[in-house]
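Hey, resending since the last one bounced:
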Amino acid sequence: MDFKKKRWIFIVLTAISYSAVWTFPYMIETYYIPVQQAFGFTNEQIGTMMSMFGIVSAIMYFPGGIFADRFSLKTLLSLAFLGTGLLGAITLMIPPLPVMMAVQFGYGLTLVLALWAAIIKFIRMVGNEDEQGKLYGWFFAFSGAAGALMGFGATALYDRLGQSVFAFKALVLFYILCTVLPALIFLITFKTAEAFPDTGSDDKINLKDIKKIIKMPIVWIMIVVVYASFIPKSTMTYFQGYLETYYAVPITLISVIAIIRVQVIRLVVSPASGWLTDKLHASSKTLMIGFIIGIVGGGILMLTPRTQGLAWLIILALFMYATLYNIGMSNYFIPISEAGIPAKYTGTITGFVSVIGFSSDIFYYNFAGGLIDANPDTGYTTIFAISLICCVVGFIFSLFLRKSIKTTRERKILD
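The structure tokens again:
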């Protein structure tokens, strides 16, 4: 079997582990209430824990990008998946907050320094420039399918075992196995020389290249686009408490809704947005559509009364934000290839864009959790308003991105 066919096996294997590993640092997004019940943390304590991951992530995104351009992608991916599985095992002991802060620090190393830019570059390099939308779209679709199956399975397990601390531990163990087993198969079967035969020492970037990257306008426009869609993504974490407090939605149903939001929507939206990008030959247009959907969702959140019978509108808005985020994830870094920037710079650009674009992880969870703890009514309204503003800004900068892609391709800055 030639590599063009075998690559889909490796894409599926990495997608499964990729989907599972991100459950660990962001477990509160799907299992916020189970985490609170198991650990006994307040909203602000959970926010502080998430901020630790955000701080380490912000520090590690850029060096992680350089790592992806200088070291073996197979080694980085394998270390990321297996290392995260080991850290996840510590969670089984339900340790106190200081230990969980250390675990979140570790996730920053495995998932950001080792994994993030490496997986983005890996997906780009297993195909040619005309199928980037398809490859990214299907990678995140496979990840969404795996995540949905894992999520529903884990939730059913948690419910069947009585929603206890023991049940939470079983849930965590389930995700550890889903992370480690596909990663071991990938580690054993993937051959770098077969997959990337044309890479060599002359493909390594240097300090001069990094300085050029930092000065490129397209890179800064990409940063704003990523940041603008990531704030609404972070806001989605608080929909669980919002639905329970104001709309009396049961905890188990909330977890199911969260799984649909995190995984099922990814399964549908990622390949669809990838197909649309390849069809339009413009990721910027697809991103604009995503921000329009986000603006509509933000408007629904601001205008919907807090009445139990209207919970479906809040869930609809939640799914709109999820659609925006998954369109973004499938298209954030396609402008790199659209602008004619060589593949050897993909990791470094991804890292630099991410270090600022995802920097809200440093403060947002602590900020939002504190607002909600102090006054839920105004707290939720404030974070919903911030998210809506970000969607508007993101739409505007997606327009700028379209022009910048063309300009960068014409100037060939990094050739």
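The chain has a mean pLDDT of 89.

Sorry for the duplicate.
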